[in-house]
Fold each of these.
Amino acid sequence: MLGYRVPAPDAAMLISGARGRGDAPFRVVTGHGAYIMPFFRKVRFLTLAMCESEVAEKCVTQQGITLNVRAVIAFKVGNDEQSIVSAAQRFLSDQNQMSVLTGRIFSGHLRSIIGSMTVEQIIRERQKLATEILDGSKEEMAKIGLTVDALQIQSIDDGDLGYILAMSAPHNAAIQQQAQIAQAKADQAAAEAEQESQRNQAEFARHTAIVQAQYKAEVDRAQAQAAQAGPLAQAQAQREVLEMRTELAQRAAELRQQELVAEVVRPAEAEAERVRILAVADAEKMKIQAEAAASHDRVALDRMLIDQLPEIVKQAAQGLAGANLTVLNGASGLSEVATGLVGQGLAIFDSLRGGLDGHRADDLTEQQPAELTGPAAN
């Protein structure tokens, strides 16, 4: 809007050409705008922002020692209307002069205060120095409408005199000694810690070696058992196979023995018994022949029967040899069979002799061969 002006947040608008409040020669406006009548009013702006001023001053202490002091002052125009009016009347045309004038004010107070203190006090009580400077300059700064936000002493030195260095030497020596003691203690503690660590490492290594040895022994034992398990199992299996083979061989031998008995021994025994039977028959033949020779009445008949008796026994023996006969008691059984055959032959002989007593000698001569052949064949 034409003629309406608004100051910046960090500035004060000064309107001249109109009476201000109180004794102020102009009107002060902050934080809001105002209508400016053209040609009748004039507007100027004063900064309310923070400003900075640096101070570098050579100061002489109470002991006569020259010190180089550097400080920084942070200040601004006060927020109240009276401070704005005071600052505007002094710095409105050249606002940069605020920093110059502030630096000079603080330089004077700095020299004055340092001149009343010793170097030791200045070094040890730097904050006290800053507070005294602020208190001494506060009234003067208020008169020109300025307030100090902060004062920071940046550095204090004595140039090449070495006073501050000499002053710090005892403390430095004590500090160095303490540092050496602390370093020695630290080294000792480190050495002890290193020794303890080495002992722990040795103990751990020993324990680890024992555990590894035990583990290796267990592994070796397990491997040995595993290695033996194969041959032992194989040997056990081979032993079982040999036992089975032995048992089979025994069974085979028993079967072969039975086969030999059936195929060789029994036929041989039967043949031997047949021969014995024939021998017995021959003996009986001779006996009968002797008895027949002693008998005159039946000489012819007995001789004929005697002649037929070996043939009867022979036929019976041949039948025994060809028969599938199982003898349970071996040679004794064969003897019994042979004896039975001979006894049967003799019984047949006696029966024939008794039966032929009532017949004629001629009929007996014709019929006897046929009757004898029949039982022998059977």
Amino acid sequence: MHTPTTTPPMIPTTDPNQEDDSLVSNDFSTALGAFILGLVFLLGVPGNVFIVWSILARIRKHSVTTFLILNLACADGVLMALTIFFVIYLAKQTWIFGNPMCKVLFYLCNTNMYASIFLITLMSVHRFVAVVFPTKVMIYANTRIAKRVVVGMWALVFLMSIPSLVFRNVREDDDEMGRPRWVCAPNHTRPTYVRFQYSFETVSGFILPYAVIITSYVMILKRLRQTQFKRKVRSEKLILAIVVTFGIFWFPYHVINMIQVAAEWYPEDSPTREKLDHIWQSSRAVTSALAFISSCANPVLYTFAGKSYIRQNGFAFMARLLEGTSLDQGTKKGRNPNSESSVGLNNVISNGNRTSPALNGNNTG
């Protein structure tokens, strides 16, 4: 393995007292992170490509939920394609791709984080409108408005991810054996920058969206309990599974963020500071790798949700699972929500039980 001893041109260095916030700060977590990312790449790339293909090639009419799932699969697929760079980084334990790629790759990772949680939030809000305000769903939750909202969301996502583009550079560092190497790590020169970046990530990319999601599902469940049908429909379970899965895999990452922020409030010679620094430095690679898993988990969830269609429809099962999301068009034309044109996901949704006309007829996916 090549270990440079001098600083190459155009690659900035930072002072030796800067925080060691690199993915290769610990040998064990680095090896485990590389293993996890390798599996993520093998599962996530074909899985998300299959979802995109199923929606674009197999589904004639796209509903709001289908459109959101398409965007989520595209975002996750791009992130999965980038994991190969991080696998090489963790395996070699030195950054070989240069400073521009260091900035761009981590910027795209942050973009995916925000895009994923915001798309999941939009799914939850859409379900909230469809269930709680079924008569308003065609006015405020149609695909034309959804496209405008998603375009605005992507613009906001690229803007919010700028800190990861600014506060990251390649620098020379020493590994645990004292050998020199290159790391792609944040270049925070002040404690205030650390507090700002990681607090901003956790609050805007986790806490606030999840507050909206939880509120939406509380209202959905409250509405369902008011009907004579007590069982939750499967579409709610599927989207809820996406929400929970994302939370499980991203929660450790944000906990590490907050531990690092907390450490910055203590003096550098404080024993508490040393303990907190050791925790986040030794855990950063693993928690980051776990966060990547959320982007390859959704194809697995869809497969389990549509397993009853696999034997009958083969590779078209995903389209069969999602085709019922065209109910918004069917409802708009005044079709009977229980007619043949409303099969697909609505059959999956009902779990063998008929739902109320209000919920069934305006269930847009």
